[in-house]
Design goal:
By secondary structure, the protein is α+β, with helices and mostly antiparallel strands. The chain has one domain: Hypothetical Protein Pfu-838710-001 (Beta Barrel). It is built from four helices and eleven strands, in the order E-E-E-H-E-E-H-E-E-E-E-E-H-H-E. An eight-stranded antiparallel beta barrel has the order 1-5-4-3-2-6-7-8. A two-stranded parallel sheet has the order 9-11. A hairpin with a 7-residue loop joins strand 7 and strand 8. The N and C termini lie far apart (37 Å).
């Protein structure tokens, strides 16, 4: 339960990212492998295994199970999470931390998996995460910002190509079952034809100026 007055509801906005400046990816990322035991209509039951700092090279073509086995001994955080559908940048998310060894075994033994390297960066007034997906979801990169309340008046970095907050295809639970690698070319054609989209109704969003706008 959060102390923001919104209980277990999370507020986030997500963007497809390209050409993220290398300087934002220099620090050791976290490796996250998630297993979805249920994913249907935006409702999900997830087990996450996380190694908080990975300071060795990771081949993004490596499949999710192999990545988990390679870094199993480095996993230092696991949690079970129940999630509801995204609506207007808001999603119900109740999480409970569990024993790391139990969590790793749960991810090993079942569910549809997603693996990603997570880089945490501070841009403007917000903390962002840049998720670089591995395995069947490579070469997907998603940038996400989360706040304790609605994400309004957002300074959006130039490497954010289009907003995918409400595009259900880009939810991690959807990516576990329909990996981006299988439809990346089709989506690129779709984006080229329709152009980028940024959701209205979130105040005065603007493109970030300065060092991180390209």
């Amino acid at each position: 339960m959060s102390d923001t007055g919104y209980g277990d509801f999370e507020f986030e906005r997500r963007f497809l990212a390209r050409d993220v400046p290398a300087r934002l990816l220099e620090t050791a990322p976290a490796l996250i492998v998630q297993s979805y035991y249920l994913a249907d209509g935006g409702y999900a039951l997830r087990v996450r295994a996380q190694a908080s700092s990975v300071d060795v090279p990771v081949d993004l073509r490596t499949d999710e199970v192999t990545l988990l086995e390679r870094f199993a001994d480095a996993v230092d955080f696991c949690a079970v999470t129940v999630k509801g559908p995204m609506a207007g940048g808001t999603r119900y998310e109740a999480e409970r931390e569990i024993d790391a060894q139990v969590g790793v075994e749960m991810v090993r033994r079942g569910g549809a998996r997603v693996a990603k390297l997570r880089h945490s960066v501070w841009l403007g007034d917000d903390g962002w995460v840049v998720d670089v997906f591995a395995g069947a979801n490579a070469p997907l990169v998603v940038a996400e910002v989360e706040r304790g309340g609605p994400v309004t008046d957002l300074a959006i970095p130039g490497f954010c190509v289009t907003e995918v907050t409400e595009d259900a295809r880009f939810a991690n639970d959807a990516l576990a079952h329909a990996p981006f690698g299988a439809w990346a070319d089709a989506y690129a054609a779709e984006l080229a034809a329709a152009g980028p989209r940024f959701l209205p109704g979130f105040g005065h969003d603007h493109r970030m100026s300065g060092a991180y706008d390209r």
